[in-house]
Write a structure and sequence with these properties.
CATH class of one domain: Alpha Beta
Radius of gyration: 20 Å
Number of strands: 8
Shape: globular
Strand content: 5-15%
Structural class: alpha/beta
Strand order of the largest sheet: 5-4-3-2-1-6-7-8
Helix content: 25-40%
CATH architecture of one domain: Alpha-Beta Barrel
Order of helices and strands: EHEHEHEHHEHHHHHEEEHHHH
Oligomer: single chain
Bound molecules: iron/sulfur cluster
Distance between the termini: 27 Å
Number of helices: 14
């Protein structure tokens, strides 16, 4: 591998979140982190949460959101994480939930009351056709009602989908094909213009037919510069394994203890290559060292990047601290 010219450096953090777990009751088609019930049932240790929050504070960020996976799958762990944030003097803007944990009114109010006492102020409640493929809508409605009872703020993400989801029987989940039957065959294709989706993770394959595709060579020539996105800290994440996810590049990792950098080329050869030369550098390296052959067409450089990295981990068994967590590549 050629020696890249630039060292990746993350001088400060603007706004971001803590990932408590990657296992999830859902397996949404647009999930950036490839979460699903198939992931190992690991939840952030309180000491790890404290360490990540300490680094976040030292790097200039005084508030976070908490997300997953589904953070409510371990209520005790979530309470401890909220406690760790309070200890570190980091405020929690909101906790994300898909509402799958909701059983009934009494259970919802009891759990939210406990969390409220532990420092929960606002819940980001996911509502989308992707979530509704796995989660009956009565649970979402139940959590909203329980928030009102307990004084927890509601941040619905996003309300625009509410009437569409509510068209269907709320006691069961509903496949996207049902939405297409009611709202038009182009329903999926229209979603990106209505809902913020980051085209990474599972969204790349899901939307591959919705956008024009390009060959690997075209992608590389259209994106001839290094990936400055790796330095973006406007929506950063740190996870339960001590990883910092650069930019929104899920499946790439920097050990949070190595922040702010500069990262050495020998410890982070792939990130250094992507940062210096961009997708063309990674593609060239993967063809020569890992016999990578492109799989048709790609909607973006990140689509090709993910395909290369998945090939390295799943087909070649590459294990490196830059390509973490490994379960991402098995589940995305
Ligand atoms: S988008 Fe949220 S609810 Fe859906 S699989 Fe990912 S973490 Fe789970
Ligand atoms: S090509 Fe890879 S490193 Fe560059 S922005 Fe996309 S996912 Fe990140």
């Amino acid at each position: 591998m050629r020696t890249p010219k630039k060292n990746l450096y993350i001088p400060h953090l603007i706004s971001g979140g803590l990932i408590t777990n990657y296992y999830c009751t859902s397996a949404c088609r647009h999930c950036l982190y490839g979460c699903s019930p198939r992931w190992e049932k690991k939840y952030i240790e309180t000491s790890m949460a404290a360490r990540m929050l300490e680094i976040i504070g030292q790097m200039g960020c005084r508030s976070v959101h908490i997300g997953g996976g589904e953070p409510f799958l371990n209520p005790g762990g979530l309470i401890d994480t909220l406690g760790a944030a309070a200890e570190c003097g980091i405020s929690v803007d909101y906790v994300e939930t898909n509402s799958s944990w909701y059983r009934d009114e009494n259970h919802g109010i009891t759990l939210l009351s406990r969390l409220r006492r532990a420092g929960l102020n606002t819940l980001l409640i996911s509502m989308s056709p992707f979530h509704n493929e796995h989660i009956p809508f009565y649970k979402v409605k139940g959590v909203i009602a329980a928030c009102r009872e307990t004084g927890v703020g509601v941040f619905p993400w996003i309300t625009e989908f509410y009437p569409e989801i509510d068209t269907f029987d709320d006691r069961t989940s509903h496949h996207l094909e049902e939405y297409q039957a009611v709202f038009g065959i182009d329903y999926l294709d229209r979603i990106p213009s209505r809902y913020w989706i980051h085209f990474g993770g599972r969204a790349l394959d899901t939307f591959s037919a919705s956008f024009p595709g390009f060959s690997s060579e075209d992608i590389c020539s259209r994106n001839a510069t290094g990936c400055s996105e790796l330095r973006d800290t406007s929506h950063f994440h740190m996870d339960l394994f001590g990883n910092y996810v650069p930019g929104l590049c899920s499946g790439l990792a920097i050990q949070a203890d190595h922040l702010p950098g500069p990262l050495s080329h020998s410890e982070y050869p792939m990130l250094s290559l992507l940062y210096s030369e961009g997708i063309g550098g990674l593609y060239s390296m993967a063809r020569h060292r890992f016999n990578f052959a492109s799989n048709g067409s790609y909607i973006s450089k990140c689509h090709l990047c993910l395909d290369i990295r998945r090939h390295m981990v799943v087909d070649y068994g590459v294990e490196t601290m830059e390509l973490q967590p490994l379960d991402f590549y098995r589940n995305v």
